[in-house]
Amino acid sequence: MALHIGCIGCGSMGGALMGGLARQGGYHLSGYNRTPERMRPLEELGVRRLHSPSAVAEVADVLLIGVKPRQVLPLLREVRSALRRETLLVSVAAGVSRRRIVQAVDARCPVVRCMPNTPALVGMGVFALCLEDDLLSEEDREVLRQIFARLGTCVELAENEFPAFSALMGAGPAYAFSMMQGLVQAGVTLGFAHREARRMVAALFSGSAMMAEQSDEALQQLRDNVCSPGGLTIAGVNVLDRAGLTGILVDAVAAAHARAREMED
Fold first, then answer.
1. Nearest partner of 263 among 111, 70, 123, judged by Cα
2. Measured between alpha carbons, how far is 243 from 237 in angstroms, rounded to an integer?
3. Of 119, 127, 144, 155, which sits with the fewest C-beta atoms within 10 Å of its C-beta?
4. DSSP 120-176
5. What is the pLDDT along the chain (265 residues), one digit of tens a residue?
6. Domains and their CATH numbers in the chain
7. What is the rounded CA–CA span in Å between residue 39 and residue 43?
């Protein structure tokens, strides 16, 4: 029998996860969202819309909690009685610890934390999974690994590593988009239309990421491979080095990490 995955809170991230799973196929899927209109695109993909959070909790083998962090604990108290020992409860809410989630559901079922990033919206997310709950069997862990591997890249982390992951990978798209915006602005300065500059820069980042993933060479070497002696690229790279781009990125991640640690309860 196919696994039944339910999601309470099918907004941006919850909806992206369910949409990705629906396109992959192989699961029974159901969901609830406070705004029913947000469910319509998912219904078109085969996700069944249920009338209440508890209705989803009652049928789900794997229950995704996609509501905003401030809504997580009240919601879990609401659906607690519908949870079974076999339910695999997965929260994607930032800053809500597994300890507080376990308390909210009276330890009725295994609790997993998952931290995605926004490229999950296009099926290329990076997911951190905390599989530390002693109630999880190895079979349970493998089920969860397989689910999220279908949606992107998964790493298993201890919960105390989540702030670091959030600072690097959760916030990472913002850093990448900031660099992309700078290059688009440079393109416009050089006379390219904005639309054309954006299209070229997006392709640049996509192709460069693929090279980094497929090559065994160090990133520094990949950079140096583009730089001819006395050429235009090394002239531009020297400006980045004098500005301290690498140090700026490290400082940005460190600042985000400090804030993430403050936010964890």
1. 70
2. 10
3. 155
4. GGGT-EEEEEE---TT--HHHHHHHHHHHHTTEEEEE--GGGHHHHIIIIISHHHHH
5. 689 999 999 998 999 999 999 998 899 999 999 998 989 999 999 999 999 999 999 999 999 999 999 999 999 999 999 999 999 999 999 889 999 999 999 999 999 999 999 898 888 999 999 999 999 999 999 999 999 999 999 999 999 999 999 999 999 999 999 999 999 999 999 999 999 999 999 999 999 999 999 999 999 999 999 999 999 999 999 999 999 999 999 999 999 999 999 887 6
6. 4-160 (3.40.50.720), 170-263 (1.10.3730.10)
7. 6
Amino acid identity, position 209? A
The neighbouring-strand residues paired with 29 are: 5
- Angle at which helix 172-189 crosses helix 245-263, to 10 degrees, equals 140
Strands 111-115 and 125-130: antiparallel
Give 25-31's long-range contacts (Cβ < 8 A, gap of 24+). Answer: 26/2, 27/2, 27/3, 28/2, 28/3, 28/4, 29/4, 29/5, 30/4, 30/5, 30/6, 30/56, 30/59, 30/60, 31/6, 31/7, 31/56
CB 66 within 8 A of CB 89: no
Nearest partner of 119 among 205, 57, 197, 190, judged by Cα: 205
Element (H, E) at 48: strand 48-49
**Cβ–Cβ contacts within 10 Å for residue 148, how many?**
23
The candidate with the shortest Cα–Cα distance to 61, out of 31, 46, 83, 76, is 83
Distances (CA, A) of 147 to 28, 59, 137, 190, 247: 13, 18, 16, 45, 36
Query: Per DSSP, what are the bridge partners of residue 20?
Result: none
Which one-letter DSSP state was computed for residue 189?
Answer: H
